[in-house]
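Worked problem 6 (solution included).
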Amino acid sequence: MSNITPPLFIESLKVVNGIFIHPELHIKRIQQTQKEVFGESSIVQLEKENIPIENRKGIQKCRIIYNQTIQQIEFSPYHPQPVHSLKCVDGTGIDYHFKYENRSTLTELLLQKGDCDDILIIQNNRITDTTYSNIVVFDGATYFTPNTYLLNGTKRQYLLQKDIIKELDIKVCDLKLFDSLYLINAMLDIEDGVRIEISDIK
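Solution. The predicted structure is:
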């Protein structure tokens, strides 16, 4: 019998007035992770009845912790953190295509942020993600997201499916071609305006 503890993963969902936002994309990612890591997936249901009554108003964050099965579901009011500057940090070689509950690798990279609010992780001279979001850049006409990413986030997938953003190979030196950069994740849309001037990326 193996005494190895299976890894834990997290999935974060936006809940607005008691409604899960894009639950099908999150369920799909949970099941894909389970299948790839453990060889089989479990049944996951996300219904309004799962949400405590006190968390059915306003914008809430649902945090699911799981391995072969769902271990814990937490709800809390969502308060976005302001981000006005990013530090480019080399993260070549790190793998975060699963959303691990253990974020020590990203936390270690974050120590290099200096006086910036977060980091923009670079791999092989290409831009990828920040520590908690995918990114979108804007050239004044079109929104692009890098085809090099650490985690294929659900909001990223949704915006690509809707043709709101387009994939592009973006090198660090290409950043100067854009006006601004936006952070996107399950909790943040482009229109939420977590926007960073390119001049504020160091």
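Discussion: The CA atoms of residues 134 and 184 lie 5 Å apart.
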